[in-house]
Amino acid sequence: MATPNDVAAWMMGEVTASGVLHQDDAAAQIEAKFGDEFVPLNDNGNMSIRPDVLKEFRKQSGDDVVWERGERLWRKRESFDQPGRLQD
Questions:
Q1: Which of 51, 52, 49, 59 is nearest to 21 (CA)?
Q2: What are 87's strand-pairing partners?
Q3: pLDDT profile of the chain (88 residues), mean per 10
Q4: The pTM is what?
Q5: Which one of 17, 22, 40, 80 has the lowest number of neighbouring Cβ atoms within 10 Å?
Q6: How does DSSP classify residue 63?
Q7: Would you call 53 exposed, middle or buried from its count of C-beta atoms within 10 A (0-12, 13-18, 19+)?
Q8: Neighbouring C-beta atoms of residue 23, cutoff 10 Å
Q9: Residue 12 and residue 30: Cα distance in Å, rounded?
């Protein structure tokens, strides 16, 4: 049975391989690969990624990955990025 660590490791592999991971794509692929227990529906009826998975992903990715809120994706940190995980 998969764990949040397994899902986060997959997410990290996707960001490492392609440079980006879109939230919607990630949720759909997590459901297909690991099961719907990792992607509950949010208040708007959309799939979300469980908080424990995101917490583990944050640990694994450290400062190497940033979240672009407007694009709803994670990507590798670039030299022009501001400090912190959240980028607009």
A1: 49
A2: 68
A3: 97 98 97 97 94 98 96 97 94
A4: 0.94
A5: 80
A6: G
A7: buried
A8: 17
A9: 12
